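call fold target=TRAP transporter substrate-binding protein
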Amino acid sequence: MKFWKLAVVAAALSASALAGAQEIKARFGTSLPDSHPQTLGARKFAELVEAKTKGHIKITVYSAGQLGSDMQMQAALQGGTQEFTAPSTATLAGLVKEFGVIGLPFSFASEQEADAVLDGPFGKKLLAQLPARGLVGLAFWENGFRNVTNSKRPIVRAEDIAGLKVRTMQNNLYIDMFGGLGANAVPMAVTELFTALESRAVDAQENPYTVVYAQKFYDVQKYLSTTGHAYDALTLLVSRKFWDRLSAPDQKAVQDAALEATAYERQTSRELNARLRGELTRLGMQINDVSPQERARMREKLQPVIAKYTAGAGEEAAKEFFAAIEQARKH
Ligand code: EAX
């Protein structure tokens, strides 16, 4: 009798010890190729999580849409069939409308302003809305300021965008933004974009230097014009179903890794952006700077779109967003 009881206790102990030591496997899917900060950040994050959990959590990174488009991966996280991804806030805006404010055209003046807003109370409040949607947001990463590239002509004046078939993200604000500038907006996943540009199904697209380079758009687009029309942040997401199964120490390790990976991802994005202009010119692109006057004219033309999406994101969120930018500007 005594022996039997002891055996049960011993079995129970070894079972829980096993559970604690069990390796947890997870998948991190990105939409962009290995050379883009989104994927570089994902790999750094995976490395840090593994180190901080002493090999207990192993994350495998699948880049360049191997697991699907940003929208598909976001849905897979909600359903619990994929664990990590880092889509644009424009993709998330389809789920939580307040994320849409980040992409409002000509809002941020610098990356530092974006950091201050996204890392401050405003960004935290945005992330706090995700668990109700089956997602946990760990941090904001950088995609960067978006510029227009096309195969027809340099964009010197605001009117030069008119008539171009421009691929946009699958997000109403971006569709209306380019519609508002007189272009023909064609929404599609970034993973399909190279082929669409190559076959001339579309003339143009808009993305930061880092995406133009990583996706080799220089092979199929001649002109890059620095419209800088919107700043784009990525959100580092975990599936809530996965997150809730992690122990408190594992959650802490993942959060710490996210913080470190964020610093690395942003720094990488900024270093690349500084270097890639020269590199893209060398690869044959013709790059022109859009003057501050023309950017102001674009902004003017977009006033109705800005008003529509400011209201669409919710007056309160928009007010807090613009107040957070003002605050960042003072520092
Ligand atoms: O999610 O779709 C895009 O153009 C985005 O810049 C990119 O994929 C990041």
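return ok
Confidence is low (pLDDT under 50) at residues 6-19. The first helix runs from residue 2 to 21.
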